[in-house]
Amino acid sequence: MRYAMAIDTKRCVGCADCVVACQTENNVPEGFCRDWIVEETIGAFPELQLEIRSERCNHCDDSPCVRCCPTGASHYEEGGVVLVNHDECIGCKACIASCPYDARFVHPEGYVDKCTFCIHRVREGKNPACVEVCPTHAMIFGDLDDRNSEISKALRTRKHKTLIPEAGTDPHVFYLL
Amino acid sequence: MNEIAITSGRMNQGVDPVLHAWTWEIPLYLYLGGLVAGILFFSAFFYLRHRENVFPAAIKIAPLFTPFMLAIGLLALFLDLTHKLYFWRLYTTIRWESPMSWGAWTLMIIFPLSIIWSAFWVKDVFPRWDWKIPFVEKSIDFLARYKAYFAWALIAFSAILGMYTGILLSAFNARPFWNTSILGPLFLVSGLSTGAAFILLISRSEQERHRFSQIDTFLIGTEIFLIIHLFMGFLASTSVHIHAAEMFLGGPYTAVFWTLVVGLGLLVPMFIEIMELRGVKVPVVIPAVLVLFGGLMLRFIVVDAGQSSRWLYKFMEQLIF
Amino acid sequence: MGKKLNRREFIKIAGMGAGGLAVASSFLKPVSLFGQSVSREKLIASTFSEATPTYCEICFWKCAGWVHKKDGRPWKIVGNPDDTHSNGRFCPRGTGGLGAYTDPDRLKTPLIRVEKRGKQVFKEATWDEAFDYIAEKMNGIKEKYGPECMALFTHGSGGGYFKNLIKAYGSNNIAAPSYAQCRGPRAEAYLLTYGEGIGSPERTDIENTKCLVLIGSHIGENMHNGQVQEFTRAHMNGATVITVDPRFSTAASKSKYWLPIKPATDLALLLAWINVIIEEELYDKEYVKKYTYGFEALKKAVKGNTPEWAYPITTIKPHIIRETAREMAAAAPAVIIHPGRHVTWYGDDTQRVRAGAILNALLGSWGRRGGFYAPSKAHVPKPEHPPYPKPQKGWRDAFPDKYPLANLALSSGICDATIPSTTDACSIKGWIVYGTNLMQTLPQPQKTIKAIQNLELLVAIDIMPSEITGWADVVLPECTYLERYDDLRISQGRVPSIALRAPAFEPQYNTKPAYWMAVQLAKKLGLSAYFPYEKIEDYLEYRLKAVGSSLAEMKKIGVKNLPLEQELYFLNGEDYEFATPSGKIELYSDTLAEHGFDPIPRYTAHEEPQEGYYRLLYGRAPMHSFGRTTNNPLLTELKLENEVWIHPKVAREWGIENGEYIRLENQDKVVSNKVKAKVTERIRHDCVYMVHGFGHTQKQMRRSLNRGASDTQLITRVNVDPIMGGTGMRVNFVTFRKEVA
């Protein structure tokens, strides 16, 4: 089992519904967010292209945050989901510095927090909150090891990329182009 | 050039607009770690070379400061933690891939070593010192029989500590400015240099000062070489590394780095020390303080600049939140 | 289109039976309206034990959803899968609707002004005191000037109760800024051309279209949920999208063609398109012959409007104009020239929108799959009440010869009628303002203030202490939509449907629902007969019973889709009589000609900015509904302030850096609050753009206070549409002022 997410940049309009859904679902403290929208404009007027991405923790296969964690608080859960164990985290912030995606932050309660792929929902057979709410159905969540999952099919049929693969972390959030 | 904007208002404290997970605590901790490594290295090294009477400040006096410096460094590290009550979790596991973990364990070893090593010299420095508790006195006397082993251990662990302060940062692939293997040697040499400067500062012996001026001059020269090497390495690397280097070559860190670290912290004291070695009378306190100051600035600037360099949205001045 | 149904299968799925029997079964079975299977968890979500049905009040799209509680505390709001407005998925504002409830800056208790109007010194009052105050003033106005001198401004679900009240009182001056400041020209243009309006949600069959033409419509940034969903579906199905916009909008980025038109010249482009379609004989000949009136006149009128003619005006190259026209024709009749929504731009807006309507007619898209469908609406009777008194005069009397074709009251007109002048036959003395912050929704705020200073009574009913409440004599704090019942949502769509809003939480503070307020006020005014049910539950029960449902049932399902009563599209060769004077689609309008207007749209040049000035354009952000949400704690996290978009060349000329704070100064020397510069290739060099609704000045709204700039403040000039009185607002020009730190 290998959980992953695919975000369809053709469908995404950058409305940030995923961000609010995450806030309410996960009770993310005010002033912080676990996911965000990036708009990247390529070219010059009037020959322009716009890529809109919903970004979050990439749940990398080779996660620098897990490697650099001195206590093992940052760890892999089932399906390769990277989680932080709150009562093992000492708040040294090494993982924050180690993440090339700036996906982590210190929760006001002291431990380090980030996207969990809504593992509590996934375990109940549901999609992560951001995926579930997306009005344009721009997000797909699923198991890469299952060849028939929607995400496997999308990655087989659509051109896609990951963010800064050259950072060498083997990210598992894909962007369909 | 691409325009990049985060349009959902992300403003995570400590991360946006530019990462500042670490502020003053970590650079101070790294600085004191390097300084202690330098002092203990020289103390142990010259002890093994039997220079006790020639270099009293280096071997006997300077180490007495190290437990306190380490304590302050550890306090700084502790203050930096945001989940302090779980501090003990550091010592329930050893994680070899985490520099933070083996750094914590190195400190766990070197802190008592520094105390014991200092204890060996207390009576030399303060002849009327009385340990009061016979058990302590006896223990020290017992351990003192193995001074040479302690010295060897100190050399090994101070080298690890000195390197570690740099490797802690260079292990972060995510921060291009830290992501260079030069950082380990650079911090080690800088640590040794500040250690030598500290000894210079407290030494009363002309011969000792002369020797440590020589050593420091050599170390500063090495440091300058490493810094040049560091930037050459960046400029020959990927665009993010080039961009990281550019922060110092015309970018926001140019002025502070080249004046405070390279100018005041390295070139000026090196010049003064060379003059002194050639017989010009200069108060030794000036180059020593400058080197100590330069070392501190180096840690602050490197920690800060590293956090400003990134892979994603690399041209941060374009990023509008 | 009152034909018999023939798409049985569709009905079988969609129809949930007025008789109520189909409801339960369709609810249990995972079916949905558009053939996609509803996943199991969606059904679980909608049967969640702590869920209360609602429909969203954050914008006018009014998506139906469920409010969830966890451990008795507010948790989240999710879409109702049976709802065609949202298809089970809310937009960010709907998802963030909880923020409206949790906002600590809400109005908390009734207030009565104690000092000079506008000084914002109030005393807290009981509801009784507040109603007594209002009733006394209203009775006074009735005696002294006649009941016609009261006016109501309204936006939102609760407005209906006050409409009832004000009509019962004897006035017809009921205005919504959504007409004269937004979609009025669209309504009149389509009424003139097709005899029917577009309505809301728009009757555009976007999901089936093969070619969608957007003119200044920034779908995706306007988060009109169902429409955005259809847009994405069409885009993914390979529909050609042609976007005309001076700005590279989100929609433009998803378009095959982006036409970065010079602002204020859209009508020229539309006429050129009509010219190409006619000259190249690309129009639907049969359709035009059968259904339209005035084709030859049109052909003659647009003879000169060639792409070459339009090029220097619009800066769009002739071959692009031809190519895009051919794309439309190739897709016809599954093509939509989108009528737009906020269309009050330059003062000739009815004509511009009509040009689009004519183009749609030539391509035969009205009443065709992938074009415009015939919407249905549920018929749910209201309880009877005595007839309303007949007003002797109205706002229109203040402008005897103006805006002959305005079918609704103009909010700007009522505002004007409040400022006394010698020609005024009806000077308005009292305003009730429900749910609309006139200081931001009406242009020319100085004029609005002048009008307000002439009032004898200003009542503001709002949830937030918006700017208008600061000017009010009495402020009535309404509870949020999550804390109240409201009238049923009955809006048009492919299938008729009704949706219920039930309270998920008890009203916080001393706030009350609008229904209760209207009933209490009616009592004080002796108008209780017009509110046969004192409790809204009984009122709802009456209405629901009439369609074979009940409050209990609706609380369980939230949304009820009723059987389709008419065809969505014309049948092949169907005879159809349009509700226009000629009974046909009027390419040439005799009505317009009679009133002295151009019977066929004609391009006239608009004023252009002077050297160093740039046209001020404004629009929306997907996470905010105008100024209504800019204090919502959840949504301010997504966007705390607006930015002004500036082309890099312009920025360089002015030495403006990306992200720097600057100020804008308009042609009348009005200077904005400081606003961040977004230096971007995504906009033309002759205009700047900002999101509307920011730059609040009300201290009580702590999050939004002084965040960003207000476009309204800079809109000191308007070009009024002579046909229907819409206020064209994109006629203001700004220059830059460096912000001194």
TrEMBL record, chain B:
InterPro entries: Electron_transfer_protein (IPR052049), NrfD-like (IPR005614)
Membrane topology: Multi-pass membrane protein
Record field: transmembrane: 28-49, 61-82, 102-122, 148-170, 182-203, 215-235, 255-272, 284-302
Key words of the record: Cell membrane, Membrane, Transmembrane, Transmembrane helix
Subcellular location: Cell membrane
Xref: Pfam families: NrfD
The keyword Cell membrane is assigned to this record: yes
Family, similarity comment: Belongs to the NrfD family.
Protein name stated in the entry: Nitrite reductase
Organism listed in the record: Caldithrix abyssi
